[in-house]
TrEMBL record:
This is Uncharacterized protein. Its main location: nucleus. Residues 10-62, 63-117 form the HTH myb-type domain. CDD domains: SANT. One of its GO terms (molecular function) is DNA binding. It is found in: Nucleus. InterPro entries: Myb_dom, Plant_SW-associated_TFs, SANT/Myb.
Length: 256
DNA sequence: AACAAAAGCAACCGCCTAAGG
DNA sequence: CCCTTAGGCGGTTGCTTTTGT
């Protein structure tokens, strides 16, 4: 079967669960060469997977900082509150829960919180009510824009992108985002953050999770795999996403 | 112990959007 | 503008594990 998805793979793509070997290959390849082009990377890394599949695997399981295991009470409440406000915008909700992926939150919602949400909405103060009470007029016509602005103001964490755990030389400075934000929206954001965000989600706690450096063990995985195809300079010039190289010892050196 | 049903979760699919030519 | 391509997102599927009988 030839995959003809938008990722443009030409090689036969295997499906189903990822084997530990495949995980290692992908992890090692990205650690060595960075993410330069999802659709070409599988071939270069010697993986018979679609680019889409590789991206998903990396985003949801392989990148550093992914939290596994049970959701805390605080996590539950955060999800419920933000879901009430944002709806099924799982990636946006995930941005409020460092280390949790949109997929995981989505699954957790359907498995555990959906029922609770229905009960809660009939008995408790809703997020929309909180917004109303702030005396900020949110025109229905404008609400999608307001929501986008809310998302812009989500905590910008060092790892909330495709290359979690990898220093982001290309990360957009927060000033670039705020330049397009109205004062009005800032008011709304501040109000909601004040009402919704517990002290558990302080920056300090984010850092404790996210600023963990690579372990040496991680970095040693398949440091040199004969099956890897090195992305050429041309490739990087065409699609310079997150190029980086390793130093011999223990730190990544990012190059612009 | 064996089976069925339910729950959990990883992965896939298809649509949408942004960027570039 | 229009088209193509790559990336991202949410909905859904289906396999695996757990629980109940």
């Amino acid at each position: 079967m030839v995959n003809t998805s938008s990722y443009g793979e030409k090689m036969p793509a295997s499906r189903g669960f990822w084997s530990p070997e495949e995980d290692q290959k992908l992890k090692a390849y990205i650690k060595r060469y960075g993410i330069w082009n999802w659709c070409r990377m599988p071939e270069a890394a010697g993986l018979a997977r679609s680019g889409k599949s590789c991206r998903l695997r990396w985003m949801n399981y392989l990148r550093l900082g992914i939290k596994r295991g049970n959701f805390s009470q605080e996590d539950d409440e955060t999800i419920l509150k933000w879901h009430e406000l944002l709806g099924n915008r799982w990636s946006a909700i995930a941005a409020k829960l460092p280390g949790r992926t949109d997929n995981e939150i989505k699954n957790y919602w359907h498995a555990h919180l959906k029922k609770r949400s229905k009960i809660n909405t009939s008995s408790s103060t809703t997020a929309s009510e909180i917004v109303k009470s702030s005396e900020v007029e949110v025109n229905k016509k404008d609400s999608p824009r307001i929501q986008d602005l809310l998302l812009c103001d989500a905590p910008i964490l060092p790892n909330m992108d495709a290359t979690e755990g990898i220093p982001m030389s290309t990360q957009m400075p927060i000033n670039d985002i705020s330049s397009s934000r109205t004062d009005r929206a800032v008011e709304i954001v501040q109000h909601i953050e004040k009402n919704f965000c517990s002290s558990e989600t302080s920056d300090q706690n984010y850092l404790s999770i996210w600023e963990q450096p690579f372990s040496f063990q991680d970095m040693c995985i398949l440091e040199t795999d004969p099956g890897f195809m090195v992305p050429t300079t041309t490739m990087w010039l065409q699609e310079p996403m997150y190029p980086y190289v390793y130093l011999d010892t223990s730190y990544d050196l990012w190059i612009d």
